[in-house]
Amino acid sequence: MKRSHAGWIFVAPALAAIAVFFVVPVVGALAMSFTDFDIYALADLRNLRFVGFDNYVNLLQTPLFWQALLNTLYFVLVGVPLSIVASLGAALLLHSRLTRFKAFYRTALFAPVVTTLVAVAVVWRYLLHARYGLLNYALGAFGIAPIDWLGDPHWAMPAIILLSVWKNFGYNMIILLAALQAVPTELYEAARIDGANAWRQLRDVTLPALAPVLLMVSILTMAGHFQLFAEPYVMTQGGPAQRTITVLYLMYEEGFKWWSLGSASSVAFILFVLMFAVTLLQLRLARDTEAA
Amino acid sequence: MSARGLAVNAALALLAALTLFPLAWMVAASLMAPGEASTFPPPLLPHAATLANYRELFATAGIGRQIVNSALVSACATVLSLLFNLIAGYAFAKLRFAGRDATFRTLLGALVIPGQVAMMPLFLMLKQMGLVNTYAGALVPWLASVFGIFLVRQYALSIPEELLEAARIDGAGELRIFTTIVLPLLKPIVVTLAVLTFLGAWNDFMWPLIVLTDRELQTLPVALAGLSREHVQDTELMMAGSVVTVLPVLVLFLVLQRHYMQGLLMGSVKG
User: Fold this and answer.
1) What is the mean pLDDT of chain A?
2) Ramachandran area for residue B99 (φ above 0: left; ψ -120 to 50: alpha; else beta)
3) CATH class of A53-291
4) What is the CA radius of gyration of chain B?
5) Looking at CA atoms only, how far is residue B8 from chain A in angstroms?
6) Residue A218 · residue A279 · CB < 8 Å
7) Nearest to residue A148, comparing CAs of A162, A161, A132?
8) Residue in B closest to A126 by C-alpha
9) Nearest by CB to B249, which of A90, A115, A251?
10) Do B117 and A271 count as a contact with CB atoms less than 8 A apart?
11) Which residues on chain A are in Cβ contact (under 8 Å) with B88?
């Protein structure tokens, strides 16, 4: 077996699997989004019709789609910054040379990341219970009246954000911790000689040094947040008052509850385009601030 | 310890306590008598610890079946992912062939497409092939992954070229070089990829929810989501179900933590 042949033979199985089970379906989804693929087409393909952009036009005229988009953007725009601030705070604490038992704390703070999302969403549903939940009980100690976290349209999404921050902050914490450890100590020494206090050091040394990693982390975290699905599926079923229906939740219901697979495919593509646009926007913003 | 040191350590201790609390409460509530968690003030510890919820979970809800399903699907996903990704990742790193770099760049580019886009046509394809409601259907997305190939490639880049050349001069074929020389060197990344895949498959929800509708075949997260809709009031039973779902992956992570973290850090430098 010649080396040049060996290369292709070695990558062929993986490429074939990715082509058949990913590339073909993605192209298929684009095609399907221009058809009225529904339960009748599922029974008999002859019922399938090409409908052009009808699915997209219909979606844009459906209030539920806009609600889902709004809810998803709420989750992304509030959840991502909170999550990264929590990760950065935890990483700074872990990085401090004053910290004892670093390995233990690192593992403890990371533990929620490896847990099963569905299982911890079930746990949090009870912790957030209006009457018997421990969160309201703890807040009661500070004189805060019970909140119907998952039953009040205003509080359901904040509750899901709370769970999501708890579940995910450990992931970026590890990445930021590694980045912190790579910042040259001379920079801090120089800042100290210039009389910079801890806050100034964070602002003038740490954050600029972390900027590239923070950009990467925020892009990946945003991509993850756009794919919110299991939390509302388990905790709220999209309610109350449709305030936790997300774009993916809508795709799932359209596709696998109502079997409108054509319409579901168009939802998926809108999500894809949206995620792509937001990533490009972030990269552009980062480049502009760097140039400025 | 200075006042500052005390503050830093106290803040970390508090943060760790808050982080671990939901998991600790899950275990405590799973040992409570039915109805005990739904009293006021909410109890932190069971009055008299009981395994009744676990017994009901296995006897009535038949969760044993879903544990087997989850273990089987995750183990097969791990083996398949190793079979496909190891050899491909190595080839992308060390073998020269026409179009290699362009192909690899295209693969990385595909990472921007969210996997859910593929789900509707994939479901139809599997339906045609008779794989809906089978383990095989749940396993299809785990065959090869861009992330897995990337991870192995990054690691394989560090294999010394001289080692491979020496074997070639000795007349060894490429497949033999891979199995006898490369694979042993890749052992750390094999463990890393295995842990990441096993945990990913165990915790996966949306695709198994779509493709496994028969309760006999469902994995734990899917079954748990279904149970939690039927047993909204049975807090203690649901906590037992959550413990059974979370515990295996948590233990696996604690044992292989170093490898998991390595994979996480390697995967995050792709930007």
Assistant:
1) 94
2) left
3) mainly alpha
4) 23
5) 6
6) no
7) A132
8) B235
9) A115
10) yes
11) 10-11, 13-15
Compare CB distances from B261 to A6, A174, A223 and report the shortest one's residue. Answer: A174
Q: Phi/psi at A50 (nearest 5 deg)?
A: -80, 130
pLDDT tens digit sequence for B204-228: 999 999 999 999 999 999 999 999 9
Chain-chain contact of A171 with B95 (C-beta, under 8 angstroms) = no
Sign of the torsion formed by the C-alpha atoms of A254, B245, A225 and A235? positive
Of B220, B269, B212, B211, nearest to B246 by C-alpha is: B220
Per-window interface: B 145-184 vs A, CB < 8 A? 145-146, 149, 168, 173-175, 178
CA distances from B90 to A6, B165, B173 (A): 11, 15, 15
Encoding tokens for residue B31? 């040992």
User: Please, where are the H alpha helices in B41-186?
Assistant: 52-59, 63-94, 100-109, 119-128, 135-139, 146-156, 161-169, 174-176, 183-185
d(CA A15, CA B169): 30
Cβ atoms of A184 and B40 within 8 Å: the answer is no
Q: Rounded to a whole number, what is the distance in Å from the CA of A129 to chain B's nearest CA?
A: 9
Q: Which of B84, B206, B220 sits opposite A13 (nearest CB)?
A: B84
- Statement: residue B268 has pLDDT above 70: no
| C-alpha pair distances (Å), A5 with each of A13, B100, B129, B170 | 14, 12, 32, 19
The reply to whether residue A268 touches residue B205, judged by beta carbons under 8 angstroms, is no
Q: Of A47-51, A188-192, B155-159, where does mean pLDDT reach its minimum?
A: A188-192
What per-residue confidence (pLDDT) applies to B270? Answer: 44
Q: Are B161 and B175 in contact (CB under 8 A)?
A: no
Q: How far is A187 from chain B (nearest CA, A)?
A: 21
Please count the other Cβ atoms lying within 10 Å of the Cβ belonging to residue A94: 22
Q: What's the topology of domain B64-225+237-270?
A: MetI-like fold (1.10.3720)
CB < 8 Å to A227, chain B: 114, 116
Question: Per the CB < 8 Å rule, is B125 touching A25?
Answer: yes
Could you tell me the two tokens for B183?
């694979």
Domain boundaries, chain B: 64-225+237-270
Q: B260 and A107: CB-CB below 8 Å?
A: no
A55 near A34, Cβ under 8 Å? yes
- Reference B141, options B157, B128, B129, B123; nearest CA is B123
CB–CB contact B85 A14 (8 Å)? yes
